[in-house]
Design brief:
The complex is a heterodimer.
Chain A lengths: L5 E8 L6 H10 L12 E10 L2 E10 L6 H8 L4 E7 L3 H5 L1 H11 L5 E7 L10 H10 L3 E4 L8 H20 L27
Parallel strand pairs in A: 1-3, 1-4, 4-5, 5-6
Antiparallel strand pairs in A: 2-3
Chain B lengths: L2 H7 L5 H109 L3 H13 L2 H9 L5 H26 L2 H13 L3 H23 L19 H26 L6 H34 L9 H28 L5 H17 L1 H34 L7 H18 L3 H28 L22 H35 L6 H47 L8 H22 L4 H20 L6 H21 L4 H14 L7 H4 L8 H8 L7 H6 L3
Helix pairs in contact in B: 2-3, 2-4, 2-5, 3-5, 3-6, 5-6, 6-7, 7-8, 7-9, 8-9, 8-10, 9-10, 9-11, 9-12, 10-11, 10-12, 12-13, 12-14, 13-14, 13-15, 14-15, 14-16, 15-16, 16-18, 17-18, 17-19, 18-20, 19-20
The chains are: A alpha/beta, B mainly alpha.
């Protein structure tokens, strides 16, 4: 068993070409691979970070944006602890598709999942979506909001670290009142199996 | 010593002094005599040595003369050797020049022969000889040709190049003719000549084009789906995998053509040209595969819309199997391409090998076949999700209806999940297997959470038998359906238990079976992580079970509390022996029923029940007053319970020990003996022990306070 206290699944979704893979690469490997090809199906990366002196393992699922992979990517929503919905600030259509993505999230994801809206590519000169429009959208739909640049490594680390902090707080809150019936736990065994991934669902 | 010194040293004026001086002189005289005789004795040997030396000197002169002669000779030899080696070098140069001249003469003769020979061979349709001539020309040293030209001979290269071009044109024309006639033997014979005339790439292109045309017609025939057109929804009954078979034939035709290319390229020692041929052939295979898969997708969609509303999920199974089979065939074809490229290029230099493998991978990634496979997988996953949801809903409905033959919800659900996971793995795609695992985990969790837990949270009346303490209330006659409800409830608890085990078993099975699909560590990690999702389902089943056990305890609680009150009662009944055994008798009934119906949870449940009784009894004791008789009665009952727990409910032993000490305190003859009751180790805090002692009406408060505990 590896040495970590929490394991969280983070899933990135959004239209093709908005920079999901680049965000993940930047965070996990510190790279910005130019000319990145389209993701096939789902890609999988792991990074362990430290929050308040505790090891947190982030399992990052980078999904393909193209329509034909939808039935694969949808199957990852349910077990996600956090969903990052990405659009390209220099491409209006990627922003216009957000309601469709939200519908999909509503349908397949856990309703308590942490949702973050990310406007990527702030390094681009040809911005089409002003920051406040993105902020308004996020606020209307109860999402966190952040603008990032995978190319310039801007806000990328912050995005994932804040997710880790938030999820850890949620997990700690939910850890306390387990089986809070008046009779107390009858079962002495621990309820988590295999890994600690179920610590958020009780 | 000189005389003056003697005279100074000794006083010669006296006789004594004279005598001493004389002695001294005599001693010196004898020393001088001895020295003289020594010197004389050495004179002989000195003479001998001098003789020897003079002899040696004469010999040395002879040696010097000899050495001089030798040195002169060596010098002469060296001069001679230098002379010889210079001559040898000259000879060597001359020899190599002769060899070069010979080669050039040969080349020039050959050049004449070649250009004339090519013409002649072409006229005689002997292309092999012509190609050999050209190959000879190509292998000639450029210097020979240049030298020939420099000596004023007509430039043979232009003749030769013209001849080679003519040969190439002839070969291309002949190739086209053979291709038109579909004369495989001629095509292969002609192809082998292209590498010899330095036109391998053109040969590969011609061969690939020829095979592409040939394969296209084969694929066109192979892709005809028998008995199931695009609208063949009615053909679902005839469940043979006609589309998958057609796809297999298409891919086999493609693979056959590629095998021929491979064999010919290996023969020509040019396996690095394989990507060039693949680039021409792959689109033909892609088009055929897309045609068949398009028709399969249309049939699946047709069947889906026809049977989607009220249709049985089971009807989708043949299509699911066919989709999975078709997808695995596509994966197999791609694996064939990768494997063969790797093995054919094994002997090439590393850089060339790498670029060849990369070129093939690029063709694969950019080919339409990848798109076809992705679309097919998407259709499969959509249908699989529908099948899974419908089948599990049906199983849940069946189990809730409680009619017809008894069926275990968990068995049904896991049968479905296992089938779906196996089929997902059979697609040959890690992404497909992962998605199916995710869906199965979700479905199992839904089944456990939504269905089992809801049912288990609400137990029927008296789910397990536990007689009430006397006076027993009149037992209501058990309704028949109540008994059935109880049995079903307990069965559900067992199902939750086995559901957790099943989930874990499925996860390890999936990892074992899916391992073969993974081509790299990342894919392995993906598969493991998705299989671990089944762990969450196991946790949900365990949670459902915990909820049920808590509900059971809650249902037993009123009677357990009544028994606790009975245990703590201060009165002493007449039939002491019988009364002492009443509680353990009731617990025996409970234990027997639990062991029979909840074998896995019985121990845990009994321990919890005993713990409940003990906790409640402690609580009751502190609200009663006792005389010694009453205390003794409580002690006997507590000891009996502890003894029973010792053999039947090990988990509650600790709690019983505490109750026994508490009862022992109640039964003391004198408060001063309290420390005896707390032997061997006190399980009650001093303050608690004093509270208990205070329950005895005959113990004085001051005495209790004074006790050292």
């Amino acid at each position: 068993m590896e040495d970590y206290k929490f394991l969280f699944k983070v899933v990135l979704v959004g239209n093709a070409g908005v920079g999901k893979t680049c965000l993940v690469r930047r965070f996990t490997q510190g790279l910005f691979p130019p000319g990145q090809g389209a993701t096939i199906g789902v890609d999988f990366m792991i990074k362990t970070v430290e929050v308040d002196g505790e090891k947190v393992k982030l399992q990052i699922w980078d999904t393909a944006g193209q329509e034909r992979f939808r039935s694969i990517t949808q199957s990852y929503y349910r077990s996600a602890h956090a969903l990052i919905l990405v659009y390209d600030i220099s491409c209006q259509p990627t922003f216009d598709c957000l309601p469709d993505w939200l519908r999909e999230i509503e349908e397949y994801a856990n309703n308590k999942v942490l949702r973050i809206l990310v406007g990527n590519k702030t390094d681009r000169e040809d911005r089409e979506i002003p920051r406040h429009i993105g902020e308004d959208f996020a606020q209307r739909h109860g999402m966190y909001f952040l603008e990032t640049s995978a190319k310039e490594a801007e806000n990328v680390e912050r995005l994932f670290m804040e997710i880790a902090v938030e999820l850890m707080e949620q997990a700690k809150c939910k850890e306390l009142p387990k089986y809070d019936g008046s009779l107390g736990p009858i079962n002495g065994k621990t309820t988590s199996v295999g890994d600690s991934s179920c610590c958020l669902r009780s | 010593m000189s005389l003056t010194l003697l005279l100074e040293k000794y006083d010669v004026s006296t006789e004594d002094g004279l005598q001493k001086a004389l002695n001294e002189i005599e001693k010196e005289e004898s020393d001088v005599n001895e020295a003289l005789s020594n010197a004389l004795s050495r004179a002989c040997s000195l003479e001998g040595k001098l003789r020897t030396a003079s002899q040696a000197y004469t010999k040395l002169g002879e040696v010097k003369n000899d050495a001089q002669t030798a040195a002169d000779m060596v010098e002469k030899t060296a001069v001679l050797a230098r002379d010889v080696s210079a001559k040898v070098r000259q000879l060597d140069l001359a020899r190599s020049r002769v060899a070069e001249c010979q080669r050039r003469v040969h080349d020039l003769i050959d050049l004449q022969l070649c250009s004339a020979g090519v013409e002649a061979a072409i006229k005689a349709h002997d292309y092999e000889t012509a190609a050999r001539h050209v190959a000879r020309f190509l292998s000639m040293e450029p210097g020979s040709v240049a030298a020939a030209r420099a000596r004023g001979a007509p430039d043979p290269r232009s003749d030769m190049a013209r001849a080679a071009r003519t040969l190439r044109d002839h070969l291309v024309r002949k190739f086209d003719e053979a291709a038109r006639k579909e004369d495989d033997v001629a095509v292969e014979r002609l192809f082998k000549l292209f590498p010899q005339i330095g036109q391998t790439e053109e040969g590969v292109d011609l061969l690939a084009k020829y095979l592409a045309v040939q394969t296209e017609s084969k694929i066109r025939k192979a892709s005809v789906v028998e008995g199931g057109g695009a609208g063949g929804a009615g053909g679902a009954g005839g469940a043979e995998a006609v589309h998958a078979d057609a796809l297999t034939r298409v891919l086999e035709a493609g693979a056959g053509a590629l095998q021929r290319v491979r064999a010919l390229l290996l023969h020509a020692a040019a396996p690095h040209h394989f990507p060039r041929a693949l680039l021409v052939l792959q689109p033909v295979v892609c088009a055929g595969a897309r045609r068949v898969c398009g028709s399969l997708a249309a049939r699946v969609r047709g069947a889906g819309s026809a049977g989607g509303a009220g249709g049985e999920a089971r009807a989708a199974e043949p299509q699911l199997s066919e989709l999975a089979l078709a997808h695995s065939r596509l994966q197999l074809y791609l694996a064939f391409l990768r494997r063969n490229t790797a093995s054919d290029t094994a002997n090439l230099p590393e850089a060339e090998r790498k670029s060849c493998i990369e070129a093939v991978e690029k063709i694969i990634q950019e080919s339409d076949l990848m798109r076809t496979a992705q679309d097919l997988l998407s259709h499969y996953l959509e249908l699989e999700r529908y099948f899974l949801e419908e089948s599990i809903n049906k199983a849940m409905k069946l189990s809730a209806a409680q009619t017809g033959p008894p069926s275990s919800l968990v068995d049904d659900v896991f049968f479905i999940a296992r089938k779906v996971i196996r089929r997902g793995i059979s697609t040959g795609s890690v992404d497909g297997a992962c998605a199916v695992l995710n869906e199965a985990a979700a479905a199992l969790e839904r089944c456990a959470a939504a269905s089992l837990r809801r049912r288990l949270a609400a137990p029927p009346l008296d789910p397990l038998p536990l007689p009430a303490p006397p006076p027993a209330p009149p037992a209501a006659p058990d309704a028949r359906d109540l008994a059935a409800q109880r049995a079903l409830y307990l069965e559900h608890i067992n199902e939750a238990e086995s559901g957790a085990e099943w989930s874990e078993r499925l996860a390890s099975e999936a990892v074992g079976a899916g391992e073969a699909l993974c081509r790299c560590e990342v894919e392995r990690g993906k598969l493991r992580s998705c299989a671990a999702g089944l762990g969450a389902a196991a946790a949900a089943f365990r949670h459902a079970r915990a909820v049920a056990l808590a509900a059971l305890r809650a249902a037993l609680q009123p009677r357990l509390h009544a028994w606790a009150a009975r245990l703590a009662a201060p009165d002493r009944t007449e039939e002491m022996e019988e009364e002492v055994n009443a509680l353990t008798g009731a617990l025996d009934v409970l234990g027997e029923a639990a062991r029979a119906q909840l074998p896995a949870a019985a121990d845990e449940l009994l321990a919890a029940a005993v713990a409940d009784v003990v906790a409640r009894a402690e609580h009751c004791v502190l609200r009663q007053h006792y005389d010694r008789e009453g205390g003794l009665a409580v002690e006997r009952r507590a000891r009996r319970l502890a003894a029973w727990a010792g053999s039947n409910a090990g988990g509650a032993r600790e709690r019983c020990a505490r109750l026994t000490q508490l009862a022992a305190l109640l039964a003391l003859e004198r408060a001063a003996h309290a420390h005896h009751a707390l032997q061997p180790a006190a399980r009650l805090a001093p303050a608690d022990a004093r509270h208990v002692l205070a329950r005895r009406t005959d113990f004085k408060m001051e005495e209790i306070k004074r006790l050292k505990l």
